[in-house]
Write a structure and sequence with these properties.
Blueprint (H helix, E strand, L loop, with lengths): L7 E4 L5 H12 L3 E6 L2 H11 L4 E5 L5 H9 L10 E4 L15 H28 L3 E6 L12 H20 L5 E8 L2 E2 L2 H5 L4 H5 L8 E2 H13 L8 E4 L15
Parallel strand pairs: 1-2, 1-4, 2-3, 4-5, 5-6, 6-9, 7-8
Helix pairs in contact: 1-8, 3-4, 4-5
The structure holds NADPH dihydro-nicotinamide-adenine-dinucleotide phosphate and 2-hydroxyethylsulfonic acid.
Length: 254
C-alpha cells in the first residue's frame, strides 16, 4: 500500500458528510488536506480539530471557477503539492416528479454536481500531471445507475460524473493519474436535510427503522481506493448499505 503521509488531498464539500469524514480520515492516516466549502465556521472548526499544519482551509463555492483557480494559485507549501482531488461537493434538491419539479433546484444541482465538479477537476489536473502523478476521486452515486421516481436531474448529474470520470481515465493514460468514481447508496449525512430543505422529519424518513451507511464508512472506501499501489486503479466503486437492495420493475396496470 502507499504511504498516506505523502498524501496532499484537496477536498470539496469538507464542511459536512463524506468530505468532512474524509478530511479526518486522511489526517488521522498522516496526510495533509485542503478542506473547502462555503460554510467558513465549519471549516474553522475542522481546522481547529485537525491542526493548521495538517488542514488548510479555503472558503469556496465550486460554482465559482475564478475563485477555484485563484485559491489553487495561492496555496502555500506544502499544501500546493496536491496529489489527490476528492471532488465531493454536491447535493440533491427535492424529490418531485419531473413535471412538478422546481427548475431552479435542477439548475442548482447541475451547477454544483456537474459544472462545479468539472471546474474543480479541470483546475487541479494539470498540476498533478506536471508533478508526476495523482488521483482524481469523484463522488457519483447509485442514483447514477439506478433510476428512481423523483430522481430525474439528481440521478442524471451522477450519471454524468461517472462518465466524466471514465472519460478522464482515457485522457490521462500514461501520466500516472488514477481516476476513481465512488458510488454510494443510502448514507446518513446532511444529504437528506439538504434535499428536503431543512425539514427534519422528512429528512429522517429514509433512515427510519433501518441501518444506513455513515460518512465514516464512505471515507474508508475513499482512502482505501487511494492507498492501493500506483499500478492499481479502481474505476468505479459501488457501495450500498447491507439493508439496501433492488426492487421490482414498476408495471403500470390501468
Ligand atoms: P452533505 O450534505 O453532508 O455534504 C455536502 C457537502 O457539499 C457540504 O460540505 C457542502 O458544503 C458541499 N457543497 C454543496 N454545495 C456546494 C457548493 N456550491 N460549493 C462548495 N461546496 C458545496 O452530503 P454528503 O456528504 O452525503 O454528500 C457528498 C457527496 O456525496 C455529494 O456529491 C452527494 O451527492 C454524494 N452522495 C451522497 C449520498 C448519501 O446518501 N448521503 C449517496 C451517494 C452520493 P457547504 O454547504 O458548506 O458549501
Ligand atoms: C444519494 C443516494 O439514493 O438518495 O446519492 O439518490 S440516493
Amino acid at each position: 500500500l502507499l504511504d498516506p503521509k505523502s498524501f496532499v488531498v484537496f477536498i470539496t464539500g469538507a464542511t459536512s458528510g463524506f468530505g468532512a469524514a474524509a478530511a479526518r480520515r486522511y489526517v488521522e492516516a498522516g496526510g495533509k488536506v485542503i478542506a473547502t466549502g462555503r460554510r467558513t465556521d465549519r471549516l474553522k472548526a475542522l481546522q481547529a480539530e485537525l491542526g493548521a499544519e495538517n488542514c488548510h482551509i479555503i472558503e469556496l463555492d465550486v460554482q465559482d471557477r475564478t475563485a477555484i483557480d485563484a485559491a489553487i494559485a495561492a496555496l502555500p507549501a506544502p499544501f500546493d503539492k496536491i496529489n489527490i482531488v476528492l471532488a465531493n461537493a454536491g447535493l440533491a434538491l427535492g424529490l418531485q416528479p419531473a413535471a412538478e419539479a422546481d427548475v431552479t433546484d435542477w439548475e442548482t444541482m447541475i451547477a454544483t454536481n456537474i459544472t462545479g465538479l468539472v471546474y474543480t477537476v479541470r483546475a487541479l489536473l494539470p498540476g498533478m500531471i506536471a508533478r508526476g502523478g495523482g488521483h482524481v476521486v469523484t463522488l457519483g452515486s447509485v442514483a447514477g445507475d439506478y433510476p428512481y421516481p423523483g430522481g430525474s436531474v439528481y440521478g442524471a448529474t451522477k450519471a454524468f460524473v461517472k462518465q466524466f470520470a471514465l472519460n478522464i481515465r482515457s485522457d490521462v493514460q500514461g501520466k500516472n493519474i488514477r481516476v476513481t468514481n465512488i458510488e454510494p447508496g443510502l448514507t446518513e449525512t446532511e444529504f437528506s436535510l439538504v434535499r428536503f430543505k431543512g425539514d427534519e422529519s422528512r429528512a429522517a424518513k429514509p433512515y427510519e427503522n433501518t441501518k444506513p451507511m455513515n460518512a465514516e464508512d464512505i471515507a474508508e472506501t475513499i482512502i482505501w481506493s487511494t492507498l492501493l499501489p500506483h499500478h492499481v486503479n479502481v474505476n468505479r466503486l459501488q457501495v450500498m448499505a447491507t439493508t439496501q437492495a433492488f426492487g421490482n420493475f414498476d408495471i403500470y396496470r390501468g
